[in-house]
Amino acid sequence: MSWILIKLAVTTVLIVAISEIARRSTLAGGLLASLPVISVLAMVWLYLDTRDTDQVAALASSVFWLVIPSLTLFLSLPLLLKAGLGFWPGMGASLAITAGAYLLVVSVLGRLGVAL
Predict the structure, then answer these.
(1) Per residue in 53-94, pLDDT tens?
(2) Does residue 83 form part of some domain?
(3) Residue 41 lies inside a defined structural domain of this protein
(4) CB-CB contact of 39 with 57 (8 Å)
(5) Cα dihedral angle (99, 74, 69, 88), rounded to 10 degrees?
(6) What percent of the chain has pLDDT over 70?
């Protein structure tokens, strides 16, 4: 149980730190948020928990393919906000667009024989 609390604390501190830095500088916050910190932490935690490099490789591969549809969030949200949609409706619409992109990419990759 203490290992889970350590993982939770480290991950939480990083997310809060990035949001606090972004309040002072959107460039610095964006740079830190764009780094694959959560993915790297997930791979480290997975390896430390399992010592299974095949699982880590599979996770890294899945993250690679799923980064592509996640980019729709970062394209649609600014466009919707600049078009005058409020934050919450814009975020909701962007999340719906992103979910649709995920479904599309997973479907296409499945048909191409790419296992996620």
Answers:
(1) 999 999 999 999 999 999 999 999 999 999 999 999 999 999
(2) yes
(3) no
(4) no
(5) 0
(6) 100
| Structural domain includes residue 62 | yes
Instruction: Give the structural domain span for 106.
Output: 53-116
Does residue 98 lie in a domain region? yes
Length of the chain: 116
> For the chain, what is the domain count?
1
Closest CA to 100 of 79, 80, 73: 73
pLDDT at 34 over 90: no
Buried b (16+ CB within 10 A) or exposed e, 29-42: beebbeeeeebeeb
SS3 25: coil
DSSP 49-115: HH--HHHHHHHHHHHHHHHHHHHHHHHHHHHHHHTT--HHHHHHHHHHHHHHHHHHHHHHHHHTT--
Phi, psi of 104 (to 5 degrees): -65, -50
